[in-house]
Amino acid sequence: MTDQSHPLETLQDIKQMMERSSRFISLSGLSGVAAGACALVGAWFANDIISHSSRLVNFKDEIREDGKISILGYMGHPLMQIAIITFIAAFVLAFTFTYLRSRQHGIPIWGTTSRRLLISVSIPLIAGGFYLLKLMTERAYGLIAPGCLIFYGLALISGAKYTLSEVRYLGYCQLVIGLVSLNFIGYGLYFWALGFGVLHIVYGIVMWWRHERKPTD
Q1: How far apart are CA 163 and CA 48, in angstroms?
Q2: Is the residue at 19 inside a domain?
Q3: Which of 39, 50, 75, 113 is the most buried (most CB within 10 A)?
């Protein structure tokens, strides 16, 4: 019986080694929870500003002669500042938890697979970034939140082949929420909070439960 099980154990070890070399498996579920929490806090502050403002955005001093707004005109607005702070906080926390998980398992956080993952995710995000900047200059504010969700979902789907399968499903959900929100212009902040906030927290809990939770005896 022992002789028969030994080849199976060897094959299992080889399979695990191949998965480690072909996929970035250091993603932490706590990263998703932290990023989602940051998104919800940011959405709460943004909603507070919007609800106490007579206009969603007031850039009349930055409107050019052609009726458009320069990108620099946005940078001093509280909503843009909240978005930047939220992104930085989410990125730092997500990177920290992922780094700690990679050290715990002795897996380098930067290598061939992580570079491929970064490139695969970056292409849709960069394209989406240029598209969203154009929406801002054209003052098409109602399409910004759906655009964020759609391009982010595409980025996750694109990069999922280099990491855990849960990332692909998160991407599908983000994409669907973004497409649905196109039919509810004016409620983009709520869909934004649902996608970047609630879904990230659910994803993080699932990731932690499936890959990081210590089994009980």
Answers
A1: 37
A2: no
A3: 39
Residue 2: burial class (beta carbons within 10 Å; 0-12, 13-18, 19+): exposed
State the pLDDT at residue 15: 47
- What's the CA gap between 86 and 76, in Å, rounded? 15
Q: Tell me, yes or no, whether 198 lies in a domain.
A: yes
pTM over 0.90, yes/no: no
Say if residue 22's pLDDT is above 80: no
List the structure tokens of 52.
């106490």
Task: Let me know if residue 1 belongs to a domain.
Answer: no
Full domain range(s) for residue 202: 28-212
C-beta atoms surrounding 73 within 10 Å? 19
For 82, what's the count of Cα atoms within 13 Å in the CB-facing half-sphere? 17
> CA angle at residue 84 from 123 to 65, to 5 degrees?
85
* 59 touches 73 (CB < 8 A): yes
What are the tokens at 14?
């080889």
Number of domains in the chain: 1
Q: Would you say 195 and 149 are in contact if contact means Cβ atoms under 8 Å apart?
A: yes
